[in-house]
Amino acid sequence: MAEIVNLRAAKKARQRAEARAKGDENAAKFGRTKAEKDLEKTRAQKARRDLDGHERE
User: Is 56 helix (H, G, I), strand (E, B) or coil?
Assistant: First the structure.
């Protein structure tokens, strides 16, 4: 005899798995770690300071 499956629960589980897979894909494509974001921010601040330091009065 076959196993009884609640179709509503199976549908919700499938949707959760698809959403998780899409989220993981987006994180791999667009995500950056906090350290990478901080490094980029620090480099931008240094570049701005260097540019401001070369301004003529």
Answer: coil
Instruction: Give residue 26's identity as a one-letter amino acid code.
Output: N
Q: How many angstroms separate the CA atoms of 14 and 19, rounded? A: 9
Give me the residue spans of the domains in the chain.
7-53
pLDDT (tens, 9 = 90+) of the chain, 57 residues, equals 789 999 999 999 999 999 999 999 998 888 888 999 999 999 999 999 999 988 887
Work out whether the CA dihedral 33, 37, 42, 44 comes out positive or negative: positive
Alpha-carbon distances of 7 from 4, 10, 13, 26, 36, rounded to whole Å: 9, 5, 10, 28, 43
CA distance 55 to 57: 6
Q: Model's pTM, two decimal places?
A: 0.52
